[in-house]
Amino acid sequence: MKKFNFFFFLMCFTICFSQNKNEKETRISIDEFPETAKNYFNITTNTLKHLKFYKETDNKKQSFEVKFKVNKLHYSMEFDTLGKLEDIEILIKEKHITDAVSNTIKSYFNLNFEKTKIIKIQRQYINSTKKSDKYFIQHIINNPFNKHTHFEIIAEIKTKKKHELREFTFNRNGTFKKFRLVTSSSYDHALY
After folding, report:
1. In whole numbers, what is the pLDDT of the chain averaged over residues?
2. Tens-digit pLDDT profile for residues 140-172
């Protein structure tokens, strides 16, 4: 009976603290985007290509995302329902990561999984300054190789017991921070 109680406790603990990326992304018009955030893109639309607006919902929250391209770089910016910037992400390739950071990330994957296939890598920028979101967005667009805060990596991983698609967050030095499972329903838009 003690083994059963321990097993039951372990399962409940795992369920409570695991995170899943189970987002549904719906394309919307600019008129449906939060007013504050919408104004950031009225000014810069002449330089932005393929400007698209989305509403994202998952089990816990709703947010808004805009995707576009500038100077051959793919951007994704996420906002809360009030139009406050949550993060900016720029799609990159593995070769754009310094060797030292890349080796740290690879070491994490090699130590924890039998096999890893990287699907997508993004540099992530979070506005932790006192500058306005508008200023921060323009600064990142003008300086896309500026110091970022994190890497977000979507990868297929394999262990002896499972095969999963996960979204990993590493700090700018390549140190693992967290992961969440990516479900099949959010897989398509996870690839951009």
Report:
1. 85
2. 999 998 888 899 999 999 998 899 999 999 999
Distance, in Å, from the CA atom of 31 to the CA atom of 34, rounded to the nearest integer, reads 8
CA 16 to chain centre: 22
Alpha-carbon span 2 to 111, nearest angstrom: 33
pTM: 0.82
Of 17, 162, 179, nearest in space to 108 by CA: 179
Instruction: Please list, in sequence order, all residues whose beta carbon lies within 8 angstroms of the beta carbon of residue 106, skipping any fewer than 6 positions away.
Output: none
Q: SS3 for 79-115, per residue?
A: ECCCCCEEEEEEEECHHHCCHHHHHHHHHHHHHHCCE
Counting residues of the chain whose pLDDT is more than 90, the rounded percentage is: 66
SS3 per residue for the chain: CHHHHHHHHHHHHHHHHCCEECCEEEEECHHHCCHHHHHHHHHHCCCCEEEEEEEEECCCCEEEEEEEEECCEEEEEEECCCCCEEEEEEEECHHHCCHHHHHHHHHHHHHHCCEEEEEEEEEEECCCCCCCHHHHHHHHHHCCCCCCCEEEEEEEEECCCCEEEEEEEEECCCCEEEEEEECHHHHHHHCC
On whether the CB atoms of residues 20 and 62 are closer than 8 A, the answer is no
Structural domains for the chain = 17-190 (3.10.450.360)
